[in-house]
Design a protein that fits this description.
243 residues, Aminopeptidase, 12 helices
C-alpha cells in the first residue's frame, strides 16, 4: 500500500503542481478558466455579465485561490477557491447559507463561523481534459504525460482532483480552518470520497449551478479518515503539517 501511495504521489509531482493564485497574473488565469467552465462549457453564469472573459463574483475578495498547472507546458488545468471567514468588518454569510432551507441552516450556524470556510468554484475545463484526444495541434504540449494518463480521462481526473485537494488543505491549515462547507455535484462528492474525504450532507439537494448537495465536514475528522485508510493525501499531510 505504501509503495502504491508513493507511486501515485511521485507521478503527480512529475506532471503537475498547484499554485497559490495570489498575484494579478495567476488570478487572471483563475478567472479566465472559470469563465470557460461556468459561462462557455456550462450555462451556470451569463456570459453577458462577464464581458471581459473573466468569471468573478463578490466572494473572490475574501477567498484564497489555487491554480493547478501542467509542469511541462504551464497550461492551467483546474482551479478552486476557499471562501474565508471575515474578520473585523463582520463575518458575512457563506454562499451555502443562502441556498439552504431555513430548517437546515442551523447545522451550519452551529459551527464556529470564525473557523469555518467554504470550498467553491472547483473547476476543470473540458477542453483541457481532452486536449490530446480532440485537438492534435495542442497534443505536443502534453507529450510528457505517460501513455496511461493520455488514454484515461478518469485517471487524469484523479490526479487533477488530488492536486486541487492539496491546495485546499494548504489554505485551510494556513488559516487555521476547522470546518469546511461546500455545495457540490454528487460526482465531486464521490471523487472526494475516493481520497478518504467524506462530507456530511446537510438537507436535500438544491438547484444551484445545477443539482448540488450542501455538505459540511470537520477538517480533523477528514484528516483522520485519510490516515486510517492510508490514502495518498496522508503522505502529503505528513510532510506539509508534520502529522
Amino acid at each position: 500500500m505504501t509503495e502504491l501511495i508513493h507511486d501515485f504521489t511521485s507521478c503527480y509531482e512529475r506532471y503537475f503542481k498547484v499554485l497559490k493564485a495570489d498575484t494579478p497574473g495567476l488570478l487572471d488565469q483563475v478567472y479566465r478558466l472559470r469563465y470557460q467552465v461556468y459561462c462557455v462549457e456550462n450555462a451556470f453564469e451569463d456570459p453577458a455579465e462577464h464581458c471581459d472573459g473573466r468569471e468573478t463574483d463578490e466572494y473572490d475578495e475574501r477567498s484564497a485561490h489555487i491554480l493547478l498547472v501542467h509542469r511541462d507546458s504551464g497550461a492551467a488545468i483546474g482551479t478552486a477557491r476557499v471562501i474565508l471567514p471575515r474578520h473585523g468588518d463582520g463575518l458575512g454569510p457563506l454562499p451555502m447559507q443562502q441556498v439552504l432551507a431555513p430548517g437546515d441552516r442551523r447545522a451550519l450556524e452551529r459551527l464556529p463561523l470564525r473557523r469555518t470556510a467554504e470550498i467553491s468554484r472547483f473547476a476543470v475545463g473540458k477542453d483541457l481534459r481532452c486536449l490530446w484526444r480532440h485537438k492534435p495541434s495542442h497534443r505536443a504540449a502534453f507529450a510528457d504525460l505517460s501513455r496511461e494518463l493520455q488514454a484515461s480521462e478518469k485517471l487524469l481526473m484523479r490526479y487533477i482532483t488530488f492536486g486541487l485537494l492539496r491546495g485546499i488543505l494548504d489554505i485551510c491549515m494556513e488559516h487555521a480552518i476547522l470546518y469546511l462547507a461546500a455545495v457540490m455535484e454528487p460526482a465531486l462528492i464521490r471523487a472526494l470520497a475516493r481520497f478518504g474525504l467524506d462530507f456530511e450532507p446537510v438537507g436535500g439537494r438544491v438547484d444551484y449551478h445545477g443539482i448540488r448537495q450542501p455538505c459540511i465536514a470537520r477538517l480533523a475528522q477528514l484528516i483522520e479518515r485519510v490516515k486510517g485508510r492510508h490514502m495518498p493525501l496522508w503522505q502529503y499531510l505528513c510532510i506539509a503539517a508534520g502529522y
